């Protein structure tokens, strides 16, 4: 069977391309649709369907632009109520793509419209299941997202639906089916996904905690809900965009790709209240940046951290990027619904600096410098990694303030004492540093290599949680 996984690492997202006899289907596409159109053109195929497994929370799907540009029919599963023209499949309805068949199996639980698509080849053999966020490799979809959009859908109710869907609709299927999930490790749509992005259903039945044959409904609900972190704030906003519709990416790019000199950039920022988002590497940002700007580097998990740190997807944004990276930044912002980029600084930060305008810097120290100056009783350190990372190992005495919670714990950081910030590699700690600078903190330094560098020094480290220092 000709089925291809198109994986985007920065979002831990998998779309799928299916082609047979000149007809193609795309499953759960990203916002930028040209790569799918190009892929079909390579096979001289026409995209017939765009199948959506559910209304996504962690990204804005490209189904509307694909329909507009190719004439493909958008297909959702039962109970879906989109605010635009789409075909709502019946449970067990079969669609033909060339000589292949795609069977819609309603599997509510992650969301109520969640649907798994069973792929059947030209000989009638069942090949695999595209599971969306119903079943991952090593995990299942979290059941606490839909309640942020529909209030009476509690996480307990959804977890119960998911238990039934897994037991009654997926687990009875053939063990040799290949599982094609929508996400892999790093996505916030589950809590313990594997780094592997495909597997057989039979192996998942053997190793996936949520598919234990002897698991009761009550045990499933308890285990599924235990350890869930708060979902990123942009998730409900993305769901609504996917339900109601959104602007074409072409329009978003046209609005955002406006070069601005330093004077115009400053004027637009003042007039619009736009956030200045600097997407350069942490090392370059630290050496000089526009006052009040925020650093989220393109080379990391850019879209996810934008979603975590910028509360409103409608926020106006002005970009500072490396030359030639403007379109990439706008596109990756749009993947998670941030469509209001108003322009970018032509010539980048060097243009701002050369114009004589004020700029700021952030002090950075190496792990070796930290080792040389470390005083366990007097050194004040903040660890902005996830709690799970901190619990695993951390510098003795370091206070844990996860980056996505920093705005709720700003009072924890002193203004009258020097302190040091570190994360895993220096990426997240620079985001934290920019936020602190923006809020008036000055007397701190960031560890360049983060805990990765610290772990290679003799700085005292702990492998247990110190209750007095953990938030």
From TrEMBL:
Residue ranges of domain Rhodanese in the record: 270-361, 375-463
Name the InterPro entries on file. Answer: Metallo-B-lactamas, Mito_Persulfide_Diox, POD-like_MBL-fold, Rhodanese-like_dom, Rhodanese-like_dom_sf, RibonucZ/Hydroxyglut_hydro
Which CDD domains does the protein's record reference?
POD-like_MBL-fold, RHOD
Presence of the UniProt keyword Metal-binding in the record: yes
Highest taxon, organism lineage: Bacteria
Gene Ontology terms, MF aspect: hydrolase activity; metal ion binding; sulfur dioxygenase activity
Q: What is this protein called?
A: MBL fold metallo-hydrolase
Name its species. Poritiphilus flavus
């Amino acid at each position: 069977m000709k089925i291809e996984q198109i994986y985007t690492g920065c979002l831990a997202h998998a779309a799928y391309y299916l082609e047979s006899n000149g007809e193609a289907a795309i499953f759960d596409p990203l916002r930028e649709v040209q790569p799918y159109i190009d892929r079909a053109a390579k096979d001289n195929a026409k995209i017939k369907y765009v199948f959506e497994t559910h209304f996504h929370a962690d990204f804005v799907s490209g189904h509307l632009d694909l329909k507009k540009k190719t004439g493909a029919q958008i297909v959702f599963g039962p109970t879906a109520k989109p605010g635009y023209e789409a075909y709502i499949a019946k449970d067990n309805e079969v669609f033909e793509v060339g000589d292949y068949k795609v069977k819609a199996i309603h599997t509510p639980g992650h969301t109520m419209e969640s649907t798994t698509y069973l792929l059947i080849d030209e000989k009638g053999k069942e090949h695999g299941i595209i599971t969306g966020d119903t079943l991952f490799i090593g995990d299942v979809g979290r059941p606490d997202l839909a309640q942020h959009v529909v209030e009476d859908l509690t996480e307990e109710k959804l977890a119960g639906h998911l238990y039934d869907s897994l037991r009654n609709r997926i687990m009875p299927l053939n063990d040799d089916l290949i599982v094609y999930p929508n996400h892999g490790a790093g996505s916030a749509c589950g809590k313990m996904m594997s780094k592997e992005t495909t597997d057989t259903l039979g192996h998942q039945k053997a190793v996936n905690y949520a598919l234990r044959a002897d698991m009761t409904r009550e045990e499933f609900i308890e285990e599924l809900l235990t350890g869930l972190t708060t979902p990123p704030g942009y998730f409900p906003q993305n769901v609504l965009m996917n339900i109601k519709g959104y602007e074409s990416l072409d329009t978003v790019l046209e609005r955002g790709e406006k070069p601005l000199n330093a004077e115009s950039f400053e004027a637009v920022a003042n007039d619009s209240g736009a956030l200045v988002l600097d997407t350069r590497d942490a090392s370059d940002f630290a050496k000089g940046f526009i006052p009040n700007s925020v650093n989220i580097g393109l080379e990391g998990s850019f879209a996810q951290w934008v979603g975590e740190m910028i509360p409103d997807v409608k926020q106006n944004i002005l970009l500072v990027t490396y030359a030639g990276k403007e379109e990439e930044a706008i596109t990756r912002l749009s993947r998670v619904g941030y469509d209001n980029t108003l322009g970018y600084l032509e010539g980048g930060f060097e243009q701002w600096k050369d114009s004589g305008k004020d700029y700021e810097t952030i002090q950075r120290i190496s792990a070796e410098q930290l080792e040389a100056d470390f005083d366990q009783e007097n050194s004040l350190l903040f660890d902005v990694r996830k709690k799970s990372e901190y619990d695993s190992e951390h510098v003795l005495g370091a206070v844990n303030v996860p980056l996505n919670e920093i705005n709720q714990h700003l009072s924890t950081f002193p203004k009258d004492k020097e302190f040091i910030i570190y994360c895993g590699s220096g990426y997240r700690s620079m985001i934290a540093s920019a936020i602190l600078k923006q809020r008036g903190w000055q007397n701190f330094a960031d560890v360049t290599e983060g805990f990765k560098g610290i772990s290679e020094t003799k700085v005292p480290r702990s492998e247990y949680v110190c209750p007095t220092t953990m938030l």
